[in-house]
């Protein structure tokens, strides 16, 4: 019997589940087991769209359809939890298995805290994630830095710190992510700041880090993260779709070291990017200037996994004047007040902003400040967010003792 914390090398048994997958197909084999044995009603994951840059969310009901979903899409920047909330009734009456990067897993917890999704009906297969690249950025850097036609690329992968592309003629070209990022290219800015590389919030966490020697590229490293994860993993092995072996000691060490380095790099990038937007009123002025491009399309709100209010305050005329573009800054202030303590740095508000406003950078910067003040780390467990604990009178008193009860002045004054 497996238990939380156990680790395995795992791969799909080719006779029972003839799918290669990204690293041996363990994830697809587990999904197949779950669908065939009615452990879940459906699987929510992604498939390749028109080209390698597009990841399309897909709800799969039978294991025959899984072949089109296998493989990793590093330019696929969709976030799956909000889809469960918006289109699948929060998994209220449907059991769903879903593949989750760190940001997906954290968003899932935050939606569950707000009772917007039913975690009892969700099985999370975590994917370790070193980061993703936006489709636009991938196309631009392949043309400019790789000297290749982006339309000729048939496969992309991230391996040993390189973003590698393969053309239709079989040409491989890889450039180190560090080098790309030194030139302002590479992963999404929020991925560069991310500290959740192995999503242990999920039921199992799967990835290629720690798979060494002959098994590299053909096997997935699985960490069991919950009792639910242990039960499903054991049952999938017993059903014959999955083969396993013990991870090599050296592999365990390598995985630990890589995670450590990546987390440190995330923190370093936070410092770099947050420093660049200044502090106090300088930061406020910067945010106001950037936000002045806002066309109030609501893309940030629609896709934010924390936003769920039925009556959105940004639509109340006494708070934000209707028909005025850019909207009054109150629009942004409402978003900060509602989200900043729970921002999981998924990057969707920047990703989908047609005006290229780095919303996620601003929100994440505020979240980190709030974390320093209150110790709340969103998306890691089911601890309720800071604002749900704030006692109004106590908070007013605290602000009063600083000489001003204006939140604006307390947060932003030098
Ligand atoms: P498969 O059987 O091929 O199944 C993979 C599943 O993941 C499929 O269901 C597929 O639809 C789904 N999927 C693919 N792309 C996405 C996406 N963008 N969002 C959500 N679901 C998706 N492992 C590491 O150890 N280190 C890393 O740095 C790392 N970075 C990754 C970055 C990204 C963006 C992704 C998607 C994965 C990353 N992985 C990383 C995980 C690794 O690439 C493999 O997915 C993992 O080892 C499982 O391999 P498999 O053959 O068992 O999966």
UniProtKB/TrEMBL annotation:
GO terms for molecular function: iron-sulfur cluster binding; metal ion binding; oxidoreductase activity, acting on CH or CH2 groups, with an iron-sulfur protein as acceptor. Pfam families: Fer4_17 (PF13534), FrhB_FdhB_C (PF04432), FrhB_FdhB_N (PF04422). It comes from the Archaea. InterPro entries: 4Fe4S_Fe-S-bd, 4Fe4S_Fe_S_CS, Co_F420_Hydgase/DH_bsu_N, FRHB/FDHB/HCAR-like, FrhB_FdhB_C. Its cofactor is FAD. Residues 285-315, 334-364 form the 4Fe-4S ferredoxin-type domain. Keywords: Iron, Iron-sulfur, Metal-binding, Oxidoreductase. PANTHER family: 7-HYDROXYMETHYL CHLOROPHYLL A REDUCTASE, CHLOROPLASTIC, FORMATE DEHYDROGENASE SUBUNIT BETA. This is 4Fe-4S ferredoxin-type domain-containing protein. It comes from Methanorbis rubei. The lineage of its organism: Archaea, Methanobacteriati, Methanobacteriota, Stenosarchaea group, Methanomicrobia.
